[in-house]
Amino acid sequence: MTETRYHELLGQLLDGSLSEADAEELRWELERDPDRLRDVRGHLMFSDLLAQEHTPGRSAEAFWQGIQSRLSVETGVTAEVDTPPLPPPLAFEPPARRKYRGLAAVIAAVILLSTALVSQWPSSRRDEARPLLPTLSVLRSGTAGATQISLRGVVVCVHCTLHETEKCQPAVRIREEGREETLFLDDNAVRRDFNRTQGCGRTPLPVLAQGTVHTENGRPLLAATRLEVQR
């Protein structure tokens, strides 16, 4: 979904003009993109604040109960809260506002469900720190065969930063227990794509690196299957 289309659907949601088909389209986008999920949640919360300011008949207690209810659900609280029902909307409340609240309730439920689903996706846990496999001591020993690894490091240029080669070449610099090691990158599609989009590593970039490491000519060489910049 383009940025323009997303903001168009968001605007329709906030002004109460979102159709059923558009609501379904927005729901799928929120399940796919956690960043937009958080953005919609923020807009809904801000809209609640505006509604409170422009609806004098809505008591502060009712407003606070609504906020508490939203927060308790989002943090996984499942126990029922014995609170009195909120008063019905005032008679002079515009129809668009009433329609919006109904849609907002549906979208809010979708957001909460999507949040729970996203938390279960492997991709949502992909940035978790994982142990270095093999350890630096094993890498330096030269006895490790081809081994799958997933680790955090910093991409640097072997020429510009380390001054070890005549040509620019990205490598992954890792630190473990106060020790450092440089994993030279095998010349494959992942490395070439990273070099094209991010540069040689003249400016160090923190990354999550995955792939197969082996020893060649006495130094560890990483055949990367993934190099993801960590912002």
TrEMBL record:
Keywords: Membrane, Transmembrane, Transmembrane helix
Transmembrane segments: 102-121
Top-level division of the source organism's lineage: Bacteria
The protein, known as: Zinc-finger domain-containing protein
Species annotation: Singulisphaera sp. Ch08
Lineage of source species: Bacteria, Pseudomonadati, Planctomycetota, Planctomycetia, Isosphaerales
